[in-house]
């Protein structure tokens, strides 16, 4: 099978998995968006997926947006950021994306606000929550989320659209389920504090191996890479750890 057909088939298969998971969970499939995690994927492959109907992509590194920007400039697609964001990359990242899913500390919020003010812009954000403390250094502690949410809500350059988590890195979805459940319960807790008219907060959770579980637990955005584009050369640790040169297996 050639590359194009491979990607088109894989995309359709993932869309079917999402639809089936929604049926099983008694949810409306329109309530779940598929985000393509495109780290390490070449622009021509990303283009194939977009032309086959994908409308939301995300990178983990600003550098990859930069490298692929020209080749994908003509494509109508929503772009998010899902990687660990360093404050010195903010000026650049806001050129490429409409939503940053990995906001997890006040220094980032302050710098984002400063940059957005300077360019008279707004940005959608999700708060990244660390639901698997033993495995990840990133994301807010779950207990810190309600206060952090209130603080960030003071910044009118930022629109908090929901919560994101990576969850436990485990091939058994049942072991990841408590992470998803925790994110949803945090979201419900936030909802209780918000006016009834406020739009529901998104839950960005679930990846290639566990999207069904995430949907059963309430995911509204699933982030899928390998199930569509195949295995990556770099281990995910390379993208998820702050100190990229240090091996932390
Ligand atoms: C790579 C990545 C994904 C997708 O993971 P797959 O297992 O390839 O589907 C989702 N979320 C984040 C933050 C990622 O870095």
Automatic annotation (TrEMBL):
InterPro entries: Ala_racemase_N, PLP-binding_barrel, PyrdxlP_homeostasis
Pfam families linked to this entry: Ala_racemase_N
Entry keywords, A to Z: Pyridoxal phosphate
Residues with the N6-(pyridoxal phosphate)lysine modification: 39
Gene Ontology molecular functions: pyridoxal phosphate binding
Swiss-Prot/TrEMBL cofactor(s): pyridoxal 5'-phosphate
Transmembrane as UniProt keyword: no
Domain Alanine racemase N-terminal intervals: 11-232
Source superkingdom: Bacteria
Transmembrane stretches, start-end: none
Family listed: Belongs to the pyridoxal phosphate-binding protein YggS/PROSC family.
NCBIfam families: YggS family pyridoxal phosphate-dependent enzyme
Role: Pyridoxal 5'-phosphate (PLP)-binding protein, which is involved in PLP homeostasis.
Name this protein carries in UniProt: Pyridoxal phosphate homeostasis protein
Provenance organism: Taibaiella chishuiensis
